[in-house]
Amino acid sequence: MKSLYIHVPFCKAKCGYCDFVSYPEGLDLIDKYLIALEREMQLYRGMKLSTIFIGGGTPSLLSVTQLDKLIKLIKNNFDLTSLLEFTLEANPESLTLEKIAKLNIVNRFSLGLQAFDNNILKKIGRLHTFERFQQVFAYLSDCQKDINIDLIVGFKDYPYFLRELNMFLKNEGHKITHLSLYMLDNYSTAEDQVETYLESVRIIKNYGFLHYEISNFAKKGKECKHNLVYWNRGEYLGLGPSACSFLKERRYKNANKLADYFNGKQEVEELSNEQVELEKKMLNMRLLDKGIPYQKKYDFWIQKGYLKTKVKNVVLTDLGIPFFNQIFLEL
Ligand SMILES: C[S@@+](CC[C@H](N)C(=O)[O-])C[C@H]1O[C@@H](n2cnc3c(N)ncnc32)[C@H](O)[C@@H]1O
Ligand code: SF4
User: How many CB atoms lie within 10 A of CB 36?
Assistant: First the structure.
């Protein structure tokens, strides 16, 4: 069985911090994009899927008719008899009750919230308010959907983040099954920033979430099955611009630009043994319960409090996470 990722490369507007492949200027090309997706799907007709993740960009931006078409394409081309999880990423701005109703097959919604404060949301280019998020969130919760919330820690001039995070989880934490906490790409490892990150982690764990991957927290049994396939180097098919596939130890990457994607441009990458080992090491370190086999040279990082031993392995500590990129180079 395989996992399927579909990249929807459209957003109504580009958020200031984001470098995902998405085009605000290509909205009139969505129907053409769906035709290209169908062509790609036909090459893998009958593939049996365990998980599906529609991400982006902003999949919720598609109209009700376009979403309906996308779901039909998936149903017509793949074997879904053993499907365990179906996630759709959504921006609260464009996810409507009508769309949620149409997306009956989707059992897990990932909502991009990022921050709780309307002034910050506006400043970073979000088109929704916190109140709009709450409306969509309440409806998804009433529909008994699994819900992930994306948050970003590290925005400037946002001293109330921790207080608001705590308040939000106190009121709504029981309705959330999963939480992704991303550090802004240029997150500083200055002492006060590290302390903010550590305090965010403490608050989230305090509301019953397990920290199972560097950026991800879940209620027991609600870990993202799809992303676990990536982190455990399972096989997946990626469709749409910029999407990667990993099939039979080969990685395929679709072109980023819409015009190139429409022309079927794709790169194939065969990994050397050395690259495979490095990739396994990196992915295993990301999984906070897994890690890599202990070696004497890791004592330096253990003493600093960035790594700890777990049975015969070493794993990252919360304190080690903001320094992961630096530590990894020396492991
Ligand atoms: C594809 S987006 C989510 C769906 C939808 N487009 C939205 O923004 O609501 C995936 C997530 O990546 C995170 N993200 C994007 N750019 C980031 C950055 N520069 N640093 C940290 N996290 C980032 C955001 O939390 C975002 O919700
Ligand atoms: S809506 Fe989501 S994918 Fe689009 S620019 Fe903003 S964060 Fe990135």
Answer: 19
Ligand 1 centroid – CA 310 distance (Å): 31
Residue 185: pLDDT band with limits 50, 70, 90:
confident
Domain boundary (178, 198, 230) is at 230
* pLDDT band at 127; cut points 50, 70, 90: very high
Mean pLDDT for all residues in the chain: 96
243 domain residue, yes or no = no
Mark residue 207 as left, alpha or beta (left: phi above 0; alpha: psi -120 to 50; beta: remaining). Answer: alpha
From the CA of 152, how far away is ligand 1's center (Å)? 8
Ligand 1 proximal residues by C-beta, below 6 Å? 17-18, 20, 55-56, 58, 89, 91, 112, 114, 150, 152, 182, 184-185
Nearest of 62, 72, 128 to residue 100 by alpha carbon = 62
What is the per-residue pLDDT for 206?
98
Q: Which one of 89, 136, 193 would you pick to mutate in the ligand 1 pocket, going by the greatest count of ligand atoms within 8 A of its CB?
A: 89
Residue 166 has a pLDDT of 98
At 26, is the pLDDT very low, low, confident or very high (cuts 50, 70, 90)?
A: confident
pLDDT digits (tens, 9 = 90+) for 14-23: 999 999 999 9
Give the chain's domain count: 2
User: 248-260, pLDDT tens digit by residue?
Assistant: 989 999 999 999 9
Residue type, 241: P
The owner of tokens 């009700």 is: 64
Range of the domain at 101: 2-230
